[in-house]
């Protein structure tokens, strides 16, 4: 059943993309976080930290409870072929809302297409709207390309591998709770005077949850380079050397593999430089990153379905 839910969720994503925000659970999560943030203490590190922890714990619990309810309610439908199909589609739709393959590739393509057409201001605008929260107003075309590649590489873990990993180990409750924590980190996890302490618990929790998915992503991304021995070797060297150079303990893993494999330097001035000896990226490298992203997704799905099948076989043998 798990294998079929994953396969159906991916087909929904590829075929339909993202639902409108008013019907999107992640958008609801974001609205809830924005609402809760209005009541945060204006000062006091400890009070802000505790309030931020409350936002994470209560929201993650509610998300997990929602996932549990969806699984229980839909399971009650499986008394006929039609009901079983409805259960599969409803669970797949819920899982699909935890990741965005088509939307991420489309967002990166918009940036690359604008760079190809020498529309740098439009490329910056698309980058800021879809992919990053940093100030993009002064970025060069190469820096816009680098930021896009970095975002796709990191989001391969956060928005695809992570949700599937937690779905495998805990079903919809774990996948939805993970997605909520990830959304909290995206909205609160910044080192600004207003969010330093309010978002600290969200940021640290996200670091813990993504520890394994980020490294799985990097390994799969490395395998996705295998058609080219040179790219694979360079990706491996850059991963070993540069993975820990980013402020995040996790983001540097897929980003450094992408940098080495694509043969480009990914630099955020004043923060990190991955593949420092390599050339600056260009718009064509965004297209190469999208291709790498898709190959990594194929490997991720194969791994997830294989792991699910092995788990179901093991459980079946244990119940004999």
From TrEMBL:
The keyword Membrane applies. GO terms for biological process: cobalamin biosynthetic process. It is a multi-pass membrane protein. Pathway: Cofactor biosynthesis; adenosylcobalamin biosynthesis. Pfam families: CobD_Cbib. The keyword Membrane applies. GO terms for cellular component: plasma membrane. GO terms for molecular function: ABC-type vitamin B12 transporter activity; threonine-phosphate decarboxylase activity. It is found in: Cell membrane. Keywords: Cell membrane, Cobalamin biosynthesis, Membrane, Transmembrane, Transmembrane helix. The chain crosses the membrane at residues 49-70, 160-181, 297-316. InterPro entries: Cobalamin_biosynth_CobD/CbiB. Belongs to the CobD/CbiB family. Converts cobyric acid to cobinamide by the addition of aminopropanol on the F carboxylic group. This is Cobalamin biosynthesis protein CobD. It comes from Roseimaritima ulvae. The gene is cobD.
């Amino acid at each position: 059943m798990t294998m079929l839910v994953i396969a159906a969720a991916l087909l929904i994503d590829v075929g339909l993309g993202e639902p409108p925000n008013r019907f999107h659970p992640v958008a609801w999560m974001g609205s809830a976080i924005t609402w809760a943030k209005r009541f945060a203490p204006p000062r006091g590190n400890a009070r802000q930290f505790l309030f931020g922890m409350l936002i994470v714990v209560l929201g993650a619990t509610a998300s997990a409870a929602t996932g549990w309810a969806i699984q229980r309610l839909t399971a009650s439908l499986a008394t006929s072929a039609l009901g079983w199909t409805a259960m599969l589609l409803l669970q797949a739709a819920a899982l699909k809302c935890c990741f965005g393959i088509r939307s991420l590739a489309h967002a990166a393509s918009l940036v690359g297409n604008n760079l190809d057409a020498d529309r740098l201001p439009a490329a910056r605008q698309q980058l800021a709207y879809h992919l990053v929260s940093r100030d993009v107003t002064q970025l060069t075309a190469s820096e816009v390309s680098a930021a896009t590649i970095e975002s796709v590489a990191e989001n391969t873990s956060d928005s695809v591998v992570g949700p599937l990993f937690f779905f495998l180990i805990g079903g919809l409750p774990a996948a939805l709770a993970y997605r909520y924590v990830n959304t909290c980190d995206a909205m609160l996890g910044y080192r600004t005077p207003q969010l330093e302490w309010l978002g600290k618990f969200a940021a640290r929790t996200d670091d813990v949850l993504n520890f394994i998915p980020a490294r799985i992503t990097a390994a799969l991304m490395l395998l996705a380079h295998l058609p080219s021995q040179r790219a694979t070797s360079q990706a491996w060297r850059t991963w070993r050397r540069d993975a820990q150079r980013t402020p995040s303990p996790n983001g540097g893993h897929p980003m450094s593999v992408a940098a080495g494999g694509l043969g480009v330097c990914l630099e955020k001035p004043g923060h990190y430089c991955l593949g420092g000896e390599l050339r600056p990226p260009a718009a064509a490298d965004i297209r190469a990153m999208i291709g790498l992203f898709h190959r990594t997704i194929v490997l991720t799905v194969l791994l997830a379905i294989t792991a699910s099948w092995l788990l179901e076989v093991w459980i079946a043998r244990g119940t004999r």
